[in-house]
Amino acid sequence: MSAHEAIRLVLDTWFPSGLEQADTATHHQVFESWFGGAAPVLPADLAAAAQAGHLDAWGKTAQGRLALILLLDQAPRGHFAGTPQAYAGDPDALQLAEEGLRNGQYDELEHPWEKTFFFLPLAHAEGPDLRERLIRVGAMAEVLAWSAREDLRPLYRFSADQARRHRAVIARFGRYPHRNPILGRLSTIEEADYLAHGELVHRRRPPIAAQLGLQAVGS
């Protein structure tokens, strides 16, 4: 398989064909699958190759960099959910996203769903600058919401709201408390109370078609 074919395989797996022309309900269903726990399964062999640094050359193009980000940021969360390996690709995905924002590749992407997954590592990777990165993510998501098709704006406003809510969590705790048990970290008393009684931001689900009074696909 050539690099071009492998990149297309990753992108076509993650982004369903025909999204550009898809109706509102389809977009909501796809968005729900991405962020509701039923995301597509990306090729494990390519994800392992990405983590080993064997696919770094993909970063020469915007589409290749996006595919690489998906393999480092999203694939581990699907393959290793509930284990420390789920976050193993975060530092490399963050570096790729930051570089792509600086070199103009982010701006080359055409669709808001592509841009959303391009900048998500800024919100995922823990670190001392995470609060500032979440401010950037929120601002970028707002821009996408205004530039998106009118019927899709609630989805991208949801992304911006998620960034604001995550920023509040980081401002309060300096890290994502829900990762503590997975990473073997002890929770503070305040974190334990939040995990037991608070509104866990990572469990919020995007607005779905039914909530907006839309017809389901095929109905």
Low-confidence stretches: 212-219
Helix and strand pattern: HHHHHHHHHHHH
User: What's the CATH architecture name?
Assistant: Alpha Horseshoe
DSSP strand content? under 5%
Number of domains: 1
CATH topology call? Serine Threonine Protein Phosphatase 5, Tetratricopeptide repeat
Portion in helices: 55-70%
The average pLDDT score comes to 91
The number of strands is 0
Indicate the CATH class: Mainly Alpha
Shape: globular
Main sheet properties: none
Radius of gyration of CA atoms, rounded to a whole number: 17 Å
Number of helices: 12
Q: What is the CATH superfamily?
A: Tetratricopeptide repeat domain
Distance N to C terminus: 39 Å
Class by SSE composition: mainly alpha
Characterization of this structure:
Residues 212-219 have low confidence and may be disordered. 32% of the residues are buried. With 219 residues, the protein is mainly α. It has helices spanning 3-14, 24-35, 44-51, 62-79, 90-102, 105-108, 112-119, 121-124, 130-147, 153-173, 180-183, 189-197. Helix 1 packs across helix 4, helix 3 packs across helix 4 and helix 9 (130-147) runs antiparallel to helix 10 (153-173). The protein has a single domain, classed as Alpha Horseshoe (Serine Threonine Protein Phosphatase 5, Tetratricopeptide repeat), CATH 1.25.40.10.
